[in-house]
Write a structure and sequence with these properties.
By secondary structure, this protein is α+β, with helices and mostly antiparallel strands. Among the domains are: about 150 residues, Spore Coat Polysaccharide Biosynthesis Protein SpsA, Chain A (Alpha-Beta Complex), CATH 3.90.550; about 55 residues, no CATH class. It has 12 helices and 11 strands. Strands 4, 5, 6, 9 and 11 form a 5-stranded mixed beta sheet that branches. A hairpin with a 5-residue loop joins β5 and β6. α6 runs parallel beside α7. The protein starts with 6 loop residues before the first strand and ends with a helix. The structure holds manganese (II) ion. The site of manganese (II) ion has 4 residues, from loops.
């Protein structure tokens, strides 16, 4: 038996929100981040409080249709490594009219690493034996509406906590699922309405493009191997803005120890001799400075917060 709890995370409604959710027939909990943390970190907070077997993420501006939930849960029950999305119907942001979406589109992306809907290709129709009710394997998901086995979510490594505010996390999770042995599906028997807005309602401290490029560059660096070069070719600003490197499994030493609550000391009673050499005995494929800069940039990105700007100012390469 699967137990599901839904959690909302909202910024600025204050008391009113608590009062409203207390009137709902389904037991609902409000969690607050202390400061604005962005969509990814807010979701991680929600996920941490899930006590059921399945985490189901839904944007606030969604409306579920009858029978939306069972087809999602039954797929996960069959194989816990299946991550599932409903068909996302359109709710007009103008009139709130409900418009059923096509079951003939799936998720893709362009080289700016924007999520895009594309027509389901013939090969996927053939794989499904022409049955339009059977689960559709989709390369990527829109991100606002999906269900995942809770333990599997953490086995995959959850979200990349280094992403800010909004954007890129849907492709990141899609690539994560496919590259870590999971399957990402759209379940045509499950429909949920979503208000698609013309313009983003969010503010982006430091500028939209800075944040979106930052997040997308993390996706490219972590998941795309040499294909990331297409992203940088199409988005030279991203290449400048950030990084020859990011994140997930960085192996720092000293800063790591201090920042994670440890201490690093020199013990004055202990002496060990060490041969210091005039030049390094190692070879650096691709060039010394390329590799050293790469490693140092990771250090700066992961541990130095806004101080990383000093590093980039002094090391423009
Ligand atoms: Mn949304």
């Amino acid at each position: 038996m699967l137990i599901l709890r839904l959690h909302f995370i909202v910024d600025h409604l204050g008391r009113q929100l608590e009062e409203y959710v207390a009137t709902l027939p389904v037991k609902t909990k409000v969690l607050r981040t202390e400061k604005r943390s962005g969509l990814i970190r807010a979701r991680l907070l929600g996920a941490k409080h899930v006590t059921g077997k399945v985490i189901l993420f839904l944007d606030a501006h969604c409306e579920c249709t009858e029978g939306w939930l069972e087809p999602l849960l039954s797929r996960i029950a069959m194989d816990r490594r299946t991550v599932v999305c409903p068909i996302i119907d359109v709710i007009s942001d103008d009139t709130f009219e409900y418009i059923a979406a096509s079951d003939m589109t799936w998720g893709g992306f362009n080289w700016k690493l924007n999520f895009r809907w594309y027509r389901v290709p013939q090969r996927e129709m053939e794989r499904r034996g022409g049955d339009r009710t059977s689960p559709l394997r989709t390369p990527t998901m829109a991100g606002g509406l999906f269900a995942i086995d809770r333990d599997y979510f953490y086995e995959l490594g959850a979200y990349d906590e280094g992403m800010d505010i909004w954007g890129g996390e849907n492709l990141e999770m899609s690539f994560r699922v496919w590259q870590c042995g999971g399957v990402l599906e759209i379940i045509p028997c499950s429909h949920v309405g979503h208000v698609f807005r013309d313009k983003s309602p969010y503010t982006f401290p430091g500028g939209v493009s800075r944040i979106v490029l930052h997040n997308a560059a993390r996706v490219a660096e972590v998941w795309m191997d040499e294909w990331r070069d297409f992203y940088y070719a199409m988005n030279p600003a991203a290449a400048l803005l950030i990084i020859k490197a990011v994140v997930l499994f960085a192996n720092q030493l000293m800063i790591d120890v201090w920042m994670c609550g440890g201490r690093l000391e020199i013990s004055t009673c202990s002496h060990v001799g060490h041969v210091f050499r005039k030049s390094t005995p190692y070879s650096f494929p691709g060039g010394t400075s390329k590799i050293v800069n790469h490693n140092n940039a990771r250090l700066a990105e992961v541990w130095l917060d806004e101080w990383k700007e000093f590093y980039y100012a002094i090391n423009p390469g």
